[in-house]
Amino acid sequence: MAHQSGVYLHSQRQQQRLRQVIWVCFLSVACGALLSGPRSAVWLTLVAALMLPVFLWLKSDAYEKANSWLLWTLTIAISGLLLLNKGIHDPLIICYPMILMFAALFAGPRLYLSLVVFMLLFCCSLATVDWWQQNLTAIGPVRWQTIITLAMLFAVCGFAVRMVAQDFRTLLNELSDENQRVQESHQTILHLAQTDRLTGLAQRDFARQRFEQWHQQKVDLAIVLLDLDQFKPVNDSLGHSVGDQVLAAVAGRLRQLLQPDEIACRFGGDEFVLVLCTVDESALFGRLDNLLSSLQQPILVEEYSIQLSASVGVAFSSATQHDFNQLCRMADQAMYKAKDAGRNTYLLYKQEWQQHQTDTLKLITDLRQAVREQQLELHYQPKYELSSGRLNGVEALLRWRHPELGWVGPQHFIPVAEETGLIDSLGLWVIRQACLQAVQWHQAGQSLVVAVNLSARQFRSGQLPEQVAAVLAETGLPAELLELELTESMLMDEQYQVQQQLTQLMATGVKLAIDDFGTGYSNLHYLSKFQAATLKIDQSFILQLNSSIRDQALVSGMIQLAHSLGLVVVAEGVELPEVASLLSQMQCDSAQGYLWSKPVTAEQLWQLLTPELIEKHS
């Protein structure tokens, strides 16, 4: 706080107090003029008139002039009354210390010193000049000792008052500075609490508070949740410092797209939430198009040029949907739908998705219960050798008999099991049950190879080879009678980790099969790299084989390729005798499909293994 030589009046409270003191002094002088004797009344009336300019200065906020004029006017008023009355013996002389105290608190050092000197000289003059000789006999002479004492009293009083006032003002200054520091610290803490340090955008709680304020004002709002596509490779390949700079650049582009009163916040990681004021959907869609275009522009960080895209989900507030967190969840769901739709796009939340979410949550709960209560069972799809018609293997397929919904297909619950992590325990249970059943067939003289499908999730733990080896040791099934099927996409993901585990699995004697060949990458490199024993051609090439020359050429090429690599070929989804005949002519080794049998229970499969049926097929 600046301290000039003028009035110490910088706060509104001090200025208000000065106004009050001026009015009190003016009214006191006016009342004194009415109640005093003739000479004093004239003098006080003159003093009241001299005080009028003070009010003009107050009106123009010239507080220093008003304060200085007030102090001198009061000093002159008291001095005049002393002259008109009993001089130095008049009780009014006690007003001098009061004026000095006021000056010490609210005046600068120059004005204060001038007042002290004036009062001291005036009092000395009253004591030495014989202006009131007519009263000497009544009052008595003033001695020099009295004058010296009076001067010392004024000097000591003035010095003490000034020092106390200076300490008081210093304390006020320190308190004012400390209060200002506290306020600044509070603002800094509040800013940090409301602002993301990396991007400078608002925090989630602040965005929620603003949303609630606007919703109470009946403002139409849209929650836009944005997630950067493929941002993880930026952090993994270029480092988190570069990734942080990219996020800061993205935040800058988001700010440019905001209209007044709208807000953007970092939701976490590479997710951002925008709270937009909107009354026109078409205008909002135009803004979202501009948003996606802006984010696709290259971001220059150090020596790198990084180009990104984003998937965006949108949810609108309404009379029934006005909870910020719920709207964010709805926008988040729409965002993931946008990712599934191909990324770099936006989708609006649809109410029917909520029912799907509810159904999915119930399915997850029921699936956990199904695992505990053993509602799951295995069915087996027979596999036949085309040259002899002999049943030479089965594929184990998981089935769920839901107590309310009946049979639930694996296409519905297997993805749920993978998302929730249940696939690990579920997959191990399938391997164990399939091996136990295969042991029974083996002990009955039917050495059928049982195939079990693997999920990519089962490779993540790195413990699959040990788990399979433990199951084989527990059940006593020969390793060559167990075949593990995996898709081409699984070979592409996390190649080193998968290859290492496949090598360990092959070391146990387990067979490996590549399932759904032709629908994935169909990369010859992976056929040679992973030493599979079997290649299964997807049914999408088989169903129309008898009527599609193109499919015939493709299947024939796959069979020849697989044989050249020493692989056994199995065709999936055979339903027509003509198709089976064509596959036999193409020298396909085995096939499975509804032409022979649908997936059946273990008990039903025993019927297919009766000596009569086996003899018929042979």
UniProtKB/TrEMBL annotation:
Name of this chain's protein: Bifunctional diguanylate cyclase/phosphodiesterase
Matching SMART domains: EAL, GGDEF
Transmembrane segments: 18-35, 41-57, 69-85, 144-165
Record InterPro entries: Biofilm_reg_signaling, EAL_dom, EAL_sf, GGDEF_dom, Nucleotide_cyclase, Rev_trsase/Diguanyl_cyclase
Residues covered by the EAL domain: 360-613
Pfam families to which the protein is assigned, alphabetical: EAL, GGDEF
Keyword Kinase listed: no
SUPFAM superfamilies assigned: EAL domain-like, Nucleotide cyclase
Transmembrane as UniProt keyword: yes
Organism of origin: Rheinheimera marina
GGDEF domain location: 219-351
Alphabetized UniProt keyword annotations: Membrane, Transmembrane, Transmembrane helix
